[in-house]
Design brief:
Blueprint (H helix, E strand, L loop, with lengths): L2 H17 L4 H16 L3 H15 L6 H14 L2 H12 L6 H17 L2 H19 L3 H12 L9 H10 L3 H7 L1 H21 L15 H11 L1 H16 L4 H18 L5 H35 L1 H10 L5 H16 L4 H18 L4 H16 L6 H9 L6 H24 L2 H10 L3
Helix pairs in contact: 1-2, 1-16, 2-3, 2-15, 3-15, 4-9, 4-14, 4-15, 5-6, 5-12, 6-7, 6-8, 6-11, 7-8, 7-20, 8-11, 8-21, 9-18, 10-22, 11-21, 13-14, 15-18, 16-18, 17-18, 17-19, 18-19, 19-21, 20-21
Length: 440
Amino acid sequence: MDWMTALIILLGLLCLLMLTGLPVAFAFLGVNLIGAYLFLGGEIGLGQVIRNAMQSMLNYSLAPIPLFILMGELMLHTGLAFRAINAIDKMIRRVPGRMPVVSVAAGTAFSALSGSSMANTAMLGSTLLPEMLRKGYHPHLAIGPILAVGGIAILIPPSALAVLLGSLARIPISSLLIAGVIPGLILAMCFTAYIIGRAVLNPDLVPAEDDGEPDSGWERYWPFLRDVLPLFAIFFAVVGSLIGGFATPTESAAIGVAATLVAAICYRKLRVVSVAKAIVETGKVSGLILFIIVASLTFSQILAFSGAASGMLQAVQAMNLTPLAIIVVIVLILLFLGCFVDQVSMMMITIPFFIPLALSAQIDLVWLGIIYLLAMEIALLTPPFGLLLFVMKGVAPTHITLGDVVRSALPFLGIHFMVLLLIIAFPALGTWLPQTLLQP
């Protein structure tokens, strides 16, 4: 069987199973079972699926994923995240479009503490959105910033998806986590500039007066000093341990969880019920991710044994594309897939093809990893299946339609595309920080 036929069979089966509504993890499991039987030697191949499952779960580099998720869930269920949002709200005054700017600042801060885009969007949507609508902000200017900043959690450490990408693509996880800081901050600044610009150019989008309560200087700054700065010590504990080289990503994730528990104790917010909820939610999300990872190893192996991966690689190499042209092709495929499948599926489908291709073209894998993360962030906001669109619809007031949510996201999608092009044009924006901080 030639490589093209094998590729059509494997991807065709995958698309068919996903179109039936089967969860992604089970769709890949079904393809793996059929592919293993066809290409790995019948019953021997099915036995290999089981061995792969055991082998993939023994990968120590996957341990940060549940730990980073647990860290964010503890922030959410103990109420530390809500205290931080209220403190940031008191800090920002006399800015056009004040509350949307608050949502960007709070969302960026929580991204540095949670690593979960969906948790970020759900929390901001349920707390800040009703207040913005009540005060008279235009729905598009209220919803859009929350959607946009929710995705930043994919870039800014601790990011569970960055750890997963690094594990699957064999990109140094420490470098990938740190590389997301500058692109994430660029996005946050662009969102803020857009909000202020819209509010200045079209004052009808914002209420006439929204300076918040007229707090005195101390009343304004004390909540920030009390409720936000100590939490950033957790971020610096996680990132600082990586930069200092005295902790692996797994150990830094464990430090983050321990620091979060200590913070909850210090704020007198640690409850058995809260910890239990955080552990249950972590188990749900981590179980799904780890199940998909089990399938990814076998899927990559089948692509290799069937000749599909090597055949496609040779076909692309025969075109004599430049590294930049290869990056453009990769981005276009990722953006297309992002319209229809989730982020983990994007990685599983493309990594077996793109990573060997990038290595053959001598493309910096950390740079490629940042491009992956940005493309997946865009996918979270892309109709018709952008996950954050549905999360926002679920927490928004009932009169907000899905069409309102999609229209609110469009200007911020444009900003995402602009930053993606910026990273492609200037790779150092993604690679300079890890090269500087992690050099031997």
